[in-house]
Amino acid sequence: MVMSVAERPVEMAQRPAEMKPAWQGIDWRGRALDRAPFLVACLMLALIVAIYGSLQSGVFSLDEINLDTAAAMTLMLAATGQTIVLVRGGIDLSIGGMISLGTVIAATRFTDDPSTVAMWTLVILALGFLIGAFNGLLISLLKLQPFLVTLATWSILNGVAMIILPTDGGSVPGWWVGFGYAQLFGLTSPVWMLLALLLFWWWFRATRVGVTIQATGSNEKSAFLSGVSITRVNVITYGLSGLFAAGAALYLTTQTGAGSPTIGKDYILPSVAAAVIGGVSLFGGRGHLAGTLIGAFVLTLIGNLVFVLHVSSYWQPVASGVILLLSVLASSVAEKAARNRVQ
Amino acid sequence: MDLVTVKGLSKRYGGIVALSEATFSARAGEVHALLGENGAGKSTFIQILSGAVRHDGGSILVDGQDYRPANPDAAQARGIAAVFQELSLIPDLSVEQNIWFRHEPRTFLRTVNRTEMRRKTLALLDKYNFPSLRPEQELRRLTLAERQIVEIAKGLAKDPRILILDEATSALPAREAEWLLKLTRQLAAEGRLVIFISHRMAEVRAIADRLTIFRNGSTIAVHEANAVSDNEIVTQMIGRHLDRLYPERIATATDRIALSVKGFSSGSRLSGVDFALREGEVLGVGGLQGHGQRELFQSLFGASKASGTVELWGKPVSIGNPRQALTGKDGIALVPEDRRGQGLLLTKSVRENLTLSVIKRFTENGLLSRQKEAALVKEMVDFLRIKAGTPEQLAGTLSGGNQQKVIFGKMLLTQARVLLLYDPTRGVDVGTKGEIFQLMRDLAAKGYAILFHSSDMPELVHVADRVLVMRNGGIAATLEGDRISEASILRAAMLESEAA
Question: Are B22 and B6 in contact (CB under 8 A)?
Answer without folding.
Answer: yes
